[in-house]
Write a structure and sequence with these properties.
The complex is a heterodimer of chains A (about 325) and B (about 500).
Chain A lengths: L2 H36 L8 H6 L8 H9 L8 H13 L7 H15 L8 H23 L4 H21 L11 H11 L3 H8 L5 H10 L7 H16 L9 H15 L2 H7 L1 H24 L8 H18 L2
Chain B lengths: L35 H9 L2 H18 L2 E4 L6 E4 L2 E8 L1 H25 L4 H4 L5 H5 L21 E8 L5 E7 L6 H14 L1 H7 L7 H11 L10 E4 L8 H11 L2 E3 L4 E4 L2 E6 L2 E4 L2 E4 L22 H6 L4 E3 L16 H9 L11 E2 L3 H9 L4 E5 L8 E3 L5 H13 L4 E5 L5 E6 L2 E10 L1 E4 L3 E3 L4 E5 L13 E8 L13
Parallel strand pairs in B: 3-22, 6-7, 6-11, 11-12
Antiparallel strand pairs in B: 1-2, 4-5, 4-19, 8-9, 9-10, 13-16, 14-15, 14-16, 17-18, 18-21, 19-20, 21-22
Classes of the chains: A mainly alpha (about 325), B alpha+beta (about 500).
Chain lengths: ~325, ~500
C-alpha cells in the first residue's frame, strides 16, 4: 500500500476516535455535573477536562465547552477532528468504501449546520458524534477487506483509544477531594464500562476497581492493556512478523509497552503513583506513534532532493502538531 | 442533470434546418434506417416508464459521483456531467472508415514525432516549416534522440471529429497530450445498459468495456524493464483536479495505484513509489499531468505536482511516460494543418479523414485573410484546449472581435482560424420533445506495439439551442455512442 494512503487512513481513524473519546467524556462529565450542581456542592467545573485533554486554558464556563466541542480555532475540538478526518478520507476516496465516505461527509455537514442559539447544541453534537462512531466502526468492520487498509484504520483507532483512556484516568488529580468518587463514575460512563464494572466488581465504584478495569483488563476493549495487546498484534499483522519477534522499532516499542501493561497491576500504583504511571504510558504511546510514522509513512531514500526534504520537514511538523494535545 | 421530461408524442415537428442531422434526413421526419429502431423504442415508452428510466439514470450518475470540477466560482465546485439518454448511433460501415482514418492519422503523428525528435527529415525536406516546430510552445528539443519502445510517442490519442453540412467526418483537432473523457464513455455505457437493456440488445452494439484492459495491456507493453509484471501507476495532480474522478476511475478499473508527485521519488535514475513495505520501482507512468509540471528540476521550477529528477530517469530509459514528453508539438493547432501532408509524406497515402480548412497566423497571406475576416471565422489559440482561448466570430461582440484582432496581430504564430463549421445535429431530449442539438465525437486510439481504436467514444452535445460549443466547462453534455456490430444494419430499410 502507498505510504500516503496508509497515512491518510491512519489519521482519519485517529481523528474519529479522538472526537469520539472527547464527546464521551464531555457527555459523561455533564451527566455528573448536573447532579453536583443541583446539590450546590460544585458549580460548572469544566476546567479539569481541559487539563486531562491538554488543551490549555480557556476562560469562562460557556467558553470551555464551546472550545472543546465546536470551536473552529482549537485544532483539537471535536468539530476540527471531524474536519481533519474528512480531509484525510477525501484524499483516499478511491480506497475506502462509498458508505464510509458518505457517513463521514454527512456528519461533517451536520456538525457545520448547528444553530448557535441552541443552548443544548453541544450535547446534541457530542451525541451525534458518538452515534456516528458506532456506525462508522460498524461499516468498517462489515465491509473493509482485511488488507493493509483495515490494519491501518485499526491501528489509528487503537493507539488513540489507549491514549484517551489513560489520559482520562488523570481526572482525579484535577478535582476537589469530595468530587473524586463521582469522577470514577464519569470515567466508567465515558468508556461505556459501567455494566462491565458491575459484573466484575459489584456495586461500589472505587479507585482500585475502576483502575483495574480501565487500565488492566484484557477483555474490555477500551482498557489500556487490551489496546496494548491489540496494537502489538496489528503491527505484527502489517509486517507479517511473528508476535514474539520484531522487525522494526514500532513493533519493538509496542512489544515493550504490551509487556509493561502485562506485568504491572494496581498494586504497583501505590509505589509509583497514578499520575506518574499515566505519564509513563503516554511516553510509550508517543514513542510507538513516532515509530509508526517513521517506519510506514516517511520511508525516504538516503539522498533525495531538497524539495523532498522540505516536504518531509513540513510533514513532521504536521504530525508533531497532531500528536501533541 | 437530466434536463427533459416526457410527453406522449416524441417526434412532432423536428427541424433539421440547414444542418446535417444524424437521425433525420429532412424536415418531414424521415429517418435514416439505423435510427428507426431507437426512435420507435423511445416513442413506445410511456410517460411514467420514461420518467422512471430517467430518474434511475440520474441516480446512477449521482451515486457514482461521476463529476467534474468547475473552477470559475473560485471554489472548484463538483458538478455532474449532463447526460442525454438518446444514443448517437454509428453504422458499421461508417465506423470502418472512421477507424481506418484514425489509425492512419495516429500512425502519421507518431512517425512525425519520432522524426522531429531525431533526424528532422520532414523539416529538411520542407514539408513542414522548421520555424513552426521550433516556435511551438510544446516542442521539447531536450527530449531529442531518445529510444522509446516501438517508437511510440502518442500512446493515447483522443481525436475530435465533427461532420459538416454534407455529413463528411472531419478532424477538428488531435488531443495528443492528456486527452480526457474516456471515463464518461465507459460510465455512460454502464448507465445505458442498465436503463435500456432491450434497445441495446436489439441493436447489437459494439462493447466499449475492453478499454481499461486494453489500456493496461498497452502500458505494460511499453515497460522498459522486461519482466512479467511491470509496475504501472497513474500520476494525478491530486484530488482538486477537474478530472480527478476520471483518474480514480481508470486506476481502479485497471487495478493500478493512483499516485501523486509526492508518492514518487527518483534514486540513481530510477523511479520508486513509497509504500508501507518500502520503495517499489515504477516502470510505466500513465501521467495525467502536463509536461511543464512533470519535474521541477527540469521544467517548471514552481511545480509542486511533479517528481524531482523524473526527467533524468526518463532520459536514461528507466521509466516510460505515457504519453511521451513532447507530444504537444503534434497536437498544436498550427501543426494540425500539416497532418494531411504528413500522411502523404510518411505513409504515401491520401488522408481518409479530411481536416477542416485552417488559416495559419504564421502564413502571410493567411494572416491577412484572418485579420480582414475575424467576424466570420473561428479563431483559436494554437496551444489551448478545452474551449478556452477561442473566438467564434459570428456570435462574438464587436469588442471581442477587436480584442482578438489585436491578439492575432501581436503574435501571429499563436493563432489559427477556421471557417465556422456547422457541426451536425442529433435528436436530443429538450423540454418534453426531441430537438436537434450540435454534437461532436471523440474516439480514443491506444498505441503500443499495435494500435487499437475502441469502437465508440465520447459524443459531446451542446445543450444550449444553436450553440456550437460542446465542452463540459462551457455548458456541454454527453451521449452514449453506439457503434453497430452488424454490417448490414445500415441497409436495414428493406427488412423493417
Amino acid at each position: 500500500m502507498l505510504s500516503r494512503v496508509a497515512e491518510n487512513l491512519y489519521w482519519m481513524s485517529r481523528q474519529i476516535e479522538r472526537a469520539d473519546s472527547l464527546a464521551r467524556l464531555v457527555m459523561a462529565h455533564q451527566n455528573e455535573l448536573l447532579d453536583a450542581t443541583a446539590m450546590g456542592s460544585w458549580e460548572n467545573e469544566w476546567h479539569p477536562l481541559l487539563e486531562v485533554t491538554s488543551m490549555g486554558d480557556e476562560e469562562s464556563t460557556e467558553g470551555v465547552v464551546t472550545y472543546m466541542v465546536s470551536s473552529r480555532e482549537n485544532p483539537d475540538s471535536i468539530f476540527q477532528c471531524i474536519f481533519y478526518a474528512r480531509e484525510n478520507a477525501r484524499g483516499v476516496r478511491d480506497q475506502i468504501t462509498e458508505e464510509m465516505w458518505v457517513e463521514l461527509n454527512s456528519l461533517w455537514l451536520s456538525l457545520s449546520r448547528y444553530d448557535v442559539s441552541d443552548p443544548d447544541r453541544h450535547m446534541k453534537m457530542c451525541n451525534e458524534v458518538i452515534q456516528f462512531s458506532f456506525l462508522f466502526r460498524g461499516i468498517v468492520s462489515g465491509v473493509l477487506p482485511r488488507t493493509d487498509a483495515w490494519h491501518f484504520v485499526r491501528l489509528g483507532e487503537t493507539i488513540e483509544r489507549a491514549d484517551k483512556t489513560s489520559r482520562m484516568l488523570d481526572l482525579p488529580n484535577f478535582l476537589p477531594k469530595p468530587e473524586i468518587t463521582s469522577a470514577w463514575n464519569t470515567m466508567l460512563k465515558a468508556t461505556s464500562a459501567t455494566v462491565e464494572h458491575q459484573q466484575q466488581y459489584g456495586g461500589e465504584v472505587d479507585r482500585s476497581s475502576a483502575i483495574s478495569l480501565l487500565l488492566f483488563s484484557t477483555t474490555f476493549p477500551r482498557a489500556v492493556r487490551y489496546c496494548a495487546i491489540e496494537l502489538d498484534r496489528i503491527l505484527h499483522l502489517i509486517s507479517g512478523t511473528r508476535e514474539e519477534d520484531y522487525l522494526n522499532e514500532a513493533e519493538r516499542a509496542a512489544g515493550a509497552f504490551r509487556s509493561r501493561m502485562n506485568f504491572q497491576g494496581v498494586e504497583d500504583l501505590g509505589r509509583l503513583g497514578l499520575h506518574k504511571f499515566i505519564d509513563a504510558i503516554q511516553k510509550d504511546l508517543n514513542k510507538i506513534g513516532d515509530e509508526i510514522v517513521t517506519r510506514y509513512f516517511m520511508i525516504r531514500p538516503k539522498e533525495f532532493p531538497s524539495s523532498a526534504q522540505a516536504y518531509v520537514a513540513s510533514r513532521v511538523q504536521a504530525h508533531a502538531k497532531a500528536a501533541q494535545q | 442533470m437530466l434536463h427533459c421530461r416526457w410527453v406522449d408524442k416524441l417526434v412532432t415537428d423536428y427541424k433539421t434546418g440547414k444542418f446535417f442531422d444524424e437521425a433525420f434526413i429532412n424536415d418531414e421526419c424521415e429517418l435514416r434506417p439505423f435510427y428507426k429502431e431507437a426512435v420507435k423504442f423511445f416513442d413506445k415508452l410511456k410517460n411514467p416508464e420514461m420518467e422512471a428510466s430517467l430518474r434511475s439514470l440520474e441516480r446512477n450518475f449521482l451515486m457514482q459521483g461521476i463529476t467534474f470540477t468547475v473552477y470559475s466560482d473560485g471554489q472548484g465546485t463538483e458538478r455532474i456531467f449532463p447526460f442525454d439518454p438518446f444514443p448517437r448511433i454509428i453504422p458499421a460501415d461508417e465506423w470502418e472508415v472512421i477507424e481506418k482514418g484514425l489509425l492512419q492519422r495516429v500512425s502519421a503523428l507518431n512517425l512525425f514525432l519520432k522524426d522531429i525528435y531525431s533526424k528532422r527529415q520532414i523539416l529538411k525536406d520542407g514539408v513542414v516549416p522548421e520555424s513552426l516546430v521550433k516556435s511551438s510552445k510544446h516542442n521539447r528539443a531536450e527530449c531529442s534522440g531518445l529510444e522509446l519502445p516501438y517508437d511510440v510517442y502518442m500512446h493515447i490519442c483522443g481525436t475530435d471529429l465533427i461532420r459538416d453540412d454534407e455529413g463528411t467526418y472531419r478532424v477538428l483537432e488531435d488531443n495528443g497530450r492528456c486527452p480526457s473523457g474516456v471515463s464518461y464513455m465507459l460510465e455512460n455505457r454502464v448507465a445505458m445498459k442498465r436503463t435500456f437493456p432491450e434497445l441495446y440488445r436489439k441493436l447489437k452494439v459494439e462493447p466499449v468495456r475492453t478499454y481499461p484492459a486494453e489500456l493496461l495491456k498497452m502500458l505494460k507493453s511499453v515497460s522498459p524493464r522486461q519482466q512479467d509484471d511491470p509496475v504501472c501507476v497513474l500520476l494525478t495532480p491530486g484530488q482538486y483536479n477537474s478530472a480527478y474522478f476520471e483518474h480514480t476511475f481508470l486506476a481502479r478499473q485497471m487495478g493500478i495505484e493512483i499516485v501523486e508527485g509526492r508518492d514518487l521519488f527518483v534514486d540513481n535514475d530510477r523511479v520508486y513509489m513509497h509504500t508501507t513495505m518500502g520503495p517499489v520501482q515504477v516502470d510505466v507512468i500513465y501521467r495525467r499531468i502536463d509536461d511543464d509540471f512533470l519535474d521541477p528540476n527540469f521544467f517548471n521550477r514552481e511545480s509542486m505536482l511533479g517528481v524531482p529528477d523524473l526527467m533524468k530517469a526518463y532520459r536514461e530509459g528507466n521509466v516510460s511516460l505515457v504519453n511521451a514528453v513532447g507530444t504537444g508539438v503534434a497536437d498544436d493547432k498550427a501543426t494540425y494543418s500539416y497532418v494531411p501532408a504528413m500522411i502523404k509524406y510518411y505513409l504515401d497515402e491520401e488522408p481518409i479523414l479530411p481536416n477542416v480548412h485552417t488559416y495559419l497566423g504564421s502564413d502571410e497571406s493567411d494572416l491577412k485573410y484572418m485579420l480582414e475576416n475575424v467576424e466570420s471565422l473561428v479563431i483559436k489559440a494554437v496551444d489551448e484546449a478545452g474551449g478556452y482561448g477561442m473566438l467564434i466570430g459570428p456570435s462574438a461582440s464587436k469588442k471581442e472581435c477587436e480584442e482578438f484582432r489585436a491578439k492575432v496581430k501581436s503574435s501571429p504564430r499563436g493563432y489559427v482560424a477556421q471557417p465556422v463549421i456547422s457541426l451536425s445535429t442529433h435528436p436530443t431530449f429538450c423540454d418534453n420533445r426531441l430537438e436537434g442539438r450540435h454534437i461532436d465525437l471523440r474516439p480514443f486510439v491506444l498505441t503500443g506495439e499495435k494500435s487499437v481504436v475502441i469502437p465508440g467514444g465520447l459524443t459531446r452535445v451542446a445543450l444550449k439551442k444553436g450553440s456550437l460549443v460542446v465542452n463540459s466547462s462551457q455548458g456541454g453534455g454527453s451521449k452514449d455512442t453506439w457503434v453497430l456490430r452488424d454490417p448490414s444494419s445500415s441497409n436495414d430499410s428493406n427488412n423493417k
